[in-house]
Amino acid sequence: MEKKDILFVCVHNSARSQIAEEYVKRLSNGALTAESAGFKPGTINPLVVEAMKEEGIDLSEKTTQSVFELFKKGNTYKAVVTVCDESEGGNCPIFPGMTHRLHLPFPDPAELEGTHDEKMRKIREIRNQIKNMVQELLSWLEHPDAKRLGDHWEIKSTS
Hints:
Helices cover 34% and strands 20% of the residues. By secondary structure, it is α/β, with parallel strands linked by helices. The radius of gyration is 15 Å and the shape is globular.
């Protein structure tokens, strides 16, 4: 199997990992391959579908997939990014054989409470945080000598 660039992993593959996968595809203009999967795949969160549609990204026909099934297929990745929040950290699966593993936690949209409008406002915030993370990640991947220091990237000058 061909080595893919990035795998995003969360518990259900119903929101955060799906958002990140789609932003890599869009923001890299197809230069990078991305997939997403979960430990216990479910169904795509309909509020996430709604929030991504606002960005011109249609998730309505997407399905979730199991991280274990990808492993059984022999898929390999240059980087695996877990996006589970800290409370789920122990449930975030580890994908063997990857070059780089990053843990970039985001709140779980499935855990949000409130009215539809309140949930959508929070999901938009999470979506935008993930979009910003993907933009930083793509910038980092363009500079393989970059190092993450705390909450920012340091790129060593080659000159």
